[in-house]
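Hi R.,

Quick one: here's the Phosphatidylglycerol--prolipoprotein diacylglyceryl transferase sequence you asked about.
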Amino acid sequence: MLQYVIWEVNPEIFHVGSFSVRWYGLLFALGFLIGMQIMGYVFKKEDKPLADTDTLLIYMVVSTILGARFGHFLFYEPDVLLHHPLTVITPPFAGLASHGAIIGILTGLWLYSRRKESIRTNQTFLWVTDRIAIVVALAGSCIRFGNLMNSEIVGRPTDVPWAFVFMNNTEYAKIPRHPAQLYESISCLILFFILLWFWNRTKERTPRGSMLGIFMIWIFGLRFFYEYLKENQVAFEDSLPLNVGQILSIPAVLMGIYFLVRSYRTPTVLPVSEEPRTIKS
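And here's the predicted structure, written out as tokens:
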């Protein structure tokens, strides 16, 4: 039986001069690239214009990064945001908040759907968010695994046999801890397969908002409980009854419940595939 896992993986894959390729960046990019391949498959199966996936990718990348960066400073370092707002868009891009990313993604998809909500494409906000939930779950798994490779967002001390000792984390090294990043990565991967299976059964008959609701409840419901196993990210959280991640997860779960209940109370209207024919007498 394992006593604990010694984790001292180098977060850098290789470097050329001052340029380095890191596991986190690679996994972050793979989440988008594989996700867009899946969205291409979804668009093809539901008869949507494949060219729109390129536009969707741009909206997703920009909204995810801006939302995650803005959310990090708004929720965890508001003084920096107030006095140095350009830090949000200037490198190094250290500090990404998942709650901010979700807000950014939902905003970006709302803007995207405003352009695509025509009778021809019928890409409404809830249609897009339901399908994007599949790939965001996969991307979340990749990103949390990237956190593991970086030895960051570590768990609290524990004596469970699968505990990790994060040797490269100078602040929390040499003490066995919960691999909280791995818990979240596996949870996201399980959700990815659940949502893909759900969509594969229903496709265009998917109740609008149901997959978004399941995503929000699963991700942020588990996030609330995982926070009890994680070290707080900033010092001021130590004086709070719930940390920032838990506080922000409560409205996210409530939003998920709303979308899930609404999806089964509102009938799914299928798009008209062709114009009605004129009968000549």
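Residues 5-10+21-196 form one domain.

Cheers,
M.
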